[in-house]
Amino acid sequence: MGTDSEDERSESSDERAGAKRHASREDEQRFPHVPASDDDDDAVIVPDAEGGASRSRENTDHAREGAIATDGGNDAAEASGESCSPNTCTCGEKTAADTDAESETPPVATDGAGVANVDEMGELGDLEFTEPAENVSQDVDNGSPDTRVGIPDGVDLETPDYSIRSQMNDIETPDEKTWFMELDEAVIDEGRCIQCGTCVAACPSDSIGIGDDGLPELVKMCTGCSMCWDFCPRGGLRYERQWKITGGEDNVKGAGDPITEFSAKVEDDWTDKAQDGGVVTGVLATLLEEGEIDGALVATESEEDAWKAESFLATTTEELIENAGTVYNQTMALGNLDLEQWKHKLPDKSWDELSLAVVGTPCEIEGLRALQDFEWDYQAQDEGLRAVDYRIALMCTKNFNYRKLMGEQLEEKRDIAPEEIGKMDVLNGKMMVYDHDGEMIVEEDIENFHDAALKGCDECADFTGFCSDITVGSVGSSDEYSSVIIRTEQGMKAWELTEPNLDYHDLEDKSAVGKLQGWDKKKAFESLERPFDPDAPRFIEYKDHAENYGTELNPHDFGH
C-alpha cells in the first residue's frame, strides 16, 4: 500500500509538473481577453458569429488550434501561488534571461519581409512613389531590341495563335466585323498589296504601321472597324465605282471625261533632271509661289538605298526641283500624311489652315478621294487628309518591288548597280535605263521585268488616274513633252496659274493614251477575280470577296 501511495504521489507530482509546463507553454501562446476554461472536458457552447447553429467549445478548440488564453492561469499553479504572465514567471520554468529576451522589442525583418513604410518602433510613415517616365519605354533590351529579356535558354514562350484561344473560349467572330487579318489574308499575304498606304491612313485607332518590307503591318490591337478593308483598292474598295462618284457618269469610258488635254513642258534649265517636260514640278512650284499650297507630298530618293523611293513633304521650290523625276516603286504615300512627322517643315502653320498637294499613282489617288468623301476621324492622318486640295496622278501601268527590280533584275541579272543609274523610264512598253551621262544602258520589253512588278498592279484598270485633278505622263506626247489631262475645276485652276510658265499645245496623240488605257483595262479584266461593275456599291463585303478569290472567312480561326 505504501508503495502504491508513493507511486501515486510520484505520478501525481509528475502530472502536476507536466501541467505546469503545459500551462506555461499555453501562457506564451494565449491571446488577450479570451478566458481559459476551468475544465477542458466540459463542452462550453460558443455562439456562431453568423447567427447559425452554436458550436461546442470542444469543436471550436480543434478549429482554432493554438489560440489560447493569456490572462488566466493553470489550476495547479494558482493553487500553489505560482502564476506566469508574459512579463513574470513564478513557476520556475522561465529564467531571467528568458524574461529579458521576451521583454525586448521584436526585431524588424530585413530580408524583404515586413511593411516598407513601418519603422522599427512600429510607427507608420509616408510612402514614397517613383514618378513613371513619360513618352518612353522601359529599356530592357540590353541593346538588342529583337531579343526577349530574362528568358532562360531553351525555353519556348511562343504565344498560342488566335485559333487556339477561339477554340478554348468557344467564341464566334461577329459577321459584321472585318479585321486587319482579313486584309492580311486576302491582299498582303497573297502578294496583291500595291503599297498605296490607304489602309494606314484609314485606321481610326492608328493600329496599322509600315514594316521594314514596305508592307502594312499591325502595330497594336485591331478593333475590327473594317475601314482598312473597306478603303483598300485591292480589297473592299470597288475602285471603278469611285471613278464614277468622283467624275460623273462618263468617267468610266476611254480615258475618262477630261475637261481638256495638252502636251506641255516647262522652259527652264532645271528640267534636265525632270521626267519628260517637268510639268508636275512646274505646277507644284507655281502653286507654292502663289500661296495656293503650303507643301506637296512627293517621292524622294532614299539616302541609304539608291533609287528607293520615300515620301517627302516639299515646302520650297528648291526642294521640288531637287526631287524632280520618277522613281519606280511605291512610297506608301497615304501612310505618310501624318503631319506630326512633318511639323519641323511647317513652322507657325495651323494644321486646320494648311493646304497640300499630293502626287501619286492612280491607286493612291483613288484611295485618297474615297477617304476624303467621308467625315470620319482618321486619327494621325486626319489633318493631312483634310488638307489635301490638289491631287496629281502619274500615268501608270505597273509599279515594282524595289528589291526585286533594283536588286534581282538590274544588279544581279544585268550587272547594273543602282548607283550607276541616272534616269529610268517606262515608255511604249519598254523599260529604259540611262546612266548619269544620259546614255541608255537598258532598253527591254517591260514584260522581261514582270517578276519584279507588284502583283496587284495586274488588277488595276486605271492607267490615267480617273480620280485625280490633273493627270500627267509621257504617253501621247513627243520627247521632252508631258501629256497633261485636266479633269476637275481644281485642276483647271492649277493649270491656269501655271500656263504662263509653260510651252504647250493640244495633246499630240490622244489615241495613244486611249489605246494604252484600253490595254490596261483588258489586262485588269483578265486578272480580276471579282466582277467589274461601276454601278455596284462602293464597298465590297469581305465574304463576297472571299467567295470570288477563295480566301478564308475568319482566317484567325485557322491560325492566320
In short:
The protein is α+β, with helices and mostly antiparallel strands and 560 residues long.
Give a description of the structure.
With 560 residues, the chain is of the alpha+beta class. 30% of the residues lie in helices and 13% in strands. It has 17 helices and 15 strands. The chain has helices spanning 2-29, 57-63, 75-79, 96-103, 162-169, 180-188, 198-202, 227-230, 239-247, 279-289, 317-322, 362-372, 382-387, 402-414, 489-498, 510-527, 542-549; strands spanning 45-46, 55-56, 208-210, 216-218, 260-266, 295-301, 309-314, 356-360, 388-394, 421-427, 430-435, 440-445, 470-473, 482-486, 502-506. The strands form 4 sheets. Strands 7-6-8-9-13-14-5-15 form an 8-stranded mixed beta sheet. It has a 3-stranded antiparallel beta sheet with strand order 10-11-12, with no helix packed on it. A two-stranded antiparallel sheet has the order 1-2. Helix 10 crosses helix 15 (489-498). It is globular, with a radius of gyration of 41 Å. Mean pLDDT is 81; it is low at 1-10, 20-34, 40-80 and 108-113.
What is the makeup of the main sheet?
A: 8 strands, mixed
Q: Strand order within the widest sheet?
A: 7-6-8-9-13-14-5-15
Radius of gyration: 41 Å
Helical content stands at 25-40%
Q: Which range does the strand content fall in?
A: 5-15%
| Number of separate strands | 15
Mean pLDDT: 81
Structural class: alpha+beta
What sort of overall outline do the alpha carbons produce when their principal axes are compared?
globular
Q: pLDDT below 50 for ≥5 consecutive residues: which ranges?
A: 1-10, 20-34, 40-80, 108-113
Counting DSSP H or I runs of 4 or more residues, the number of helices is 17
- What is the CA–CA distance across the termini? 96 Å
